[in-house]
Amino acid sequence: MRILLAEDEMIERKAMVKFLQENFQDMEVVGEAANGRMAVELAVEKQPDIMFVDIQMPGLNGLEAIEKIQAHNPAIRFILVSAYDSFAYAKEAMRFGIKDYILKPGRKEEIVKTLLRVAKEIKAEREHHAQEEALLKEQLLMKMMQQPIAQDDVRLQKQCFPDMKSAAFFVIKATSSITEVEQELSDLLACEIILFEQQHAWIMGAISDKLLEKSVLLRAAKQLQEAKPGLFIGISEPCTSLQKMPDAYQEAYAACMQLEGADGRHYGFYQAEQKAIPNQRLVEQITSHIEAGNATEAVLFFKKNNKVLSDGEREDLYIQVKQLLTKYDTPLPQGSFTTLKTEDAWQRFIHLCCVQMGEYLSSRQTIMRVKAYVQEHFRDPITLEEVAGVVQLSPNYLSNLFKQEVGETFIDYVTHVRLEKAKELLKNNAYTLKEISFMIGYKDPNYFSRVFKKHCDLSPTQYQRQICK
């Protein structure tokens, strides 16, 4: 911590300097001011963390000096020193957000306690700020991975990465955390590293104030692979334009996927396929990526092969994608084939189609989990709220999603499962109606009989007689 003293009485000032130097070795007295004006000048020049300021000083008094200093640097924390226990001074100090106040002559214990508390608060504030800044950078990088950033985000980028000259992405498949090598990689690349986990892979953004070189990126990947054997590390080409950041991420992702399917190589850049693929197969592969909801692979594959596709083949691609989404009752992005005139328009179209399919697949997976849960717990008094908690959705959203995907309400589905099981038990003719009622989740046999008759047009007994004839 850097400390500045503003005290007009030299003996007291020197005594305070000596006291601080003897008792706070981790703190540095960076300046001494004999009056308010000098305090302002030194505060601007030295940028201290903490200032001891005497209220009564010639020229500018302590509070007037603080007002000017705060205009330059509002982060400085002030500890007021006064020979007078004045409520007026204390009230005025509160106007500047100052809570720390020492009366002359200050007891050593009081000074130590106050200074330690202020230093602890500064440290906590800095840690909180660092966490917020790291989260902001991570969120910004995630945006930059997906699409060219908007004008508002450009301003945010300049705030988060003011000296950025180039950047690159690493996409890393690992079975355990790699955070312990983050600082080592930052030192090797001589740049800022943003590292986070997403979708079973580690994403590492390297933000540099210089032009990154491919050889340096390869060396960093090699070092990481040697430190953590078994990794697959896809690397992007260095990029200098914010608009190219999504492409860079897609390259790194595709490289990682390529490495997982290769023999021998564990790190490197994306390598385009050398063998020519018939154009109809290209269309089918793009459609296949869309059907799987793989936006990164679909867009990257289209970009690599777009130039060899004829207008007729692109139209065929559009028709196949339209049929695909219709098959899954998934809406097509707005627009028509005639609006897809540029490569960027096609990339946006393919990306949106993948997003639509991804949402469909996610919904289908959720419904499968719900059905599996019901099949496993139909004997228990399960509720929509309980199952919604299991799949981490709100009950209302799950209710609407279930009806939309299955065609019946959640309650109707649970009832259907229970009654089908009841029919099996009735066929066995080994249990009483009361036992069957309990076995399928109904605690009231009479209620079970009413539900059964409502849905099957026969009472359980009538159904059993009919089946067992």
What is the topology?
Blueprint: E1 2-6, H1 10-23, E2 28-33, H2 36-46, E3 50-54, H3 62-72, E4 77-82, H4 87-95, E5 100-103, H5 108-146, H6 151-160, E6 166-173, H7 182-189, E7 192-198, E8 201-208, H8 214-227, E9 232-235, H9 245-260, E10 267-269, H10 279-291, H11 295-305, H12 311-327, H13 343-377, H14 384-391, H15 395-406, H16 410-428, H17 433-439, H18 445-456, H19 460-467
Parallel strand pairs: 1-2, 1-3, 3-4, 4-5, 9-10
Antiparallel strand pairs: 6-8, 6-9, 7-8
Helix pairs in contact: 2-3, 5-6, 9-11, 10-11, 10-12, 11-13, 13-14
The CATH architecture name of the largest domain reads: 2-Layer Sandwich
The chain-level mean pLDDT equals 84
Question: How much helical structure, as a percent, in the residues?
Answer: 55-70%
How many strand segments?
10
Query: How much β-strand is present in the residues?
Result: 5-15%
Whole-number radius of gyration? 34 Å
Instruction: Supply the CATH class of the largest domain.
Output: Alpha Beta
**Order of strands, widest sheet:** 2-1-3-4-5
String of helices and strands: EHEHEHEHEHHEHEEHEHEHHHHHHHHHH
State the major sheet: 5 strands, parallel
Global outline: extended
CATH superfamily placement of the largest domain = ACT domain
Pick out the low-confidence regions.
none
Structural class: alpha/beta
How many domains would you count in the coordinates? 3
N-C termini distance: 92 Å
CATH fold-level assignment of the largest domain: Alpha-Beta Plaits
- By DSSP (H or I, 4+ residues per run), the number of helices equals 19
